[in-house]
Structures are given as C-alpha cells and as structure tokens.
Amino acid sequence: MTQQITTHSAADDAQGIAFGSFMAAFGVALLTHLGLITGQTAGLAILIAYATGWSFGAVFFVVNIPFYWLGYRRFGLSFTIKTFAAVLLTSVLAGLAPGLIQFAEVDPVFGAILAGAVCGTGLLALFRHGASLGGVGIVALYLQDATGFRAGWAQLIFDALLFAAALFVIDWQSVGYSFLGAVVLNMVIAINHRRDRYIA
Q1: Which residues lie below 8 Å from residue 10, measured CB to CB, with a gap of 6+?
Q2: pTM (2 decimals)?
C-alpha cells in the first residue's frame, strides 16, 4: 500500500519553530551561565557578548542580518522568513532568560553535555520545519554551490578558528568544556537529521 505524504501545516511549523527557538535559548542560557561557548554563529555571538559585555540576544540578532540574502538566494523566501522568525525568537528568549531562570551550581562537564543536547534538539526541530538559526551554515552551503568546497569542511574551519579565538577571551578549561558540548550538539544533528528517515 502506498503511504500518503503530507506536509506540515502553518500551525505545525509555528509550534516547531517556537519549540526549537525555546530549546536553543535555554541551551544558550546554560552555556553563558557556565562561561562556555558553542560553534557556528551562536558561538560567535556568545564570544562577542563575553568580550564586549553586550547582550547575547542583541548580538545574535545583528550578526545574522547579513546572512538573510544568502539564505533567500540558496533556500528561498519561506526558509528565510522562518529563519528570521527563529533567530528573532531565540534572541528575545535568550535576552529574557536571565530574569526567568537561574542556575545555582552546575557541573561544567554535565552542563556542556546538556547544553549540547538541548541545542541540538532545538536545531533538529528548526531543520525539520524548514528553518535554521542562520549564519555560518548558510554561507557554507552557498560556498559549496559556488565553488564545490564542502559545506561541512567550511563549518569545521570556522569552528576551529572560533575556538582558537576563544582562548583569548575565556580560559582553556572552558574552551575544552565548550568543545565537548559542541561535539554532543553535532552528534545529535549527524545521527538524527536524516531525510531518509522521515517523509513529511
């Protein structure tokens, strides 16, 4: 029997983007409580926030602005609108988080693993509903289309440079914990984001 393929409704996408943004913002709140970073554009925004004292939410929103045109060119209008909504919501929630949730004591290894898993889950939800958190991933895919240089390698190079730069802002132990969290996040994405395992 042939299985009928259905697509997400607007309500499905709205709840998926809200859930993904909420999880990402919670992960960022945990990371910043521990003084850690992550990879990609969110990690860059966290590092800038540490170095300047500016709000992560504001930095994250502004840093993503240049990437929307590339997102539109590569993925279309629907993706760009959804990504803009996800970035805006994540920025707002991350800005509100310090007044809404407070952590007492969190082991940095456990916290890094938890933050990586939570952020990975949030990104999975966003990917599943045709959105992302913008930034470096869009540029990497655009470069792949234009030059043939693999997107995964481009993102890896960016993250390597980001973590190297972090050594000038946070201590090496925190960079190590951050790397652990980033590995967990990427494992969540690599293992679970498989288009051959879902149809809608």
Answers
A1: none
A2: 0.85
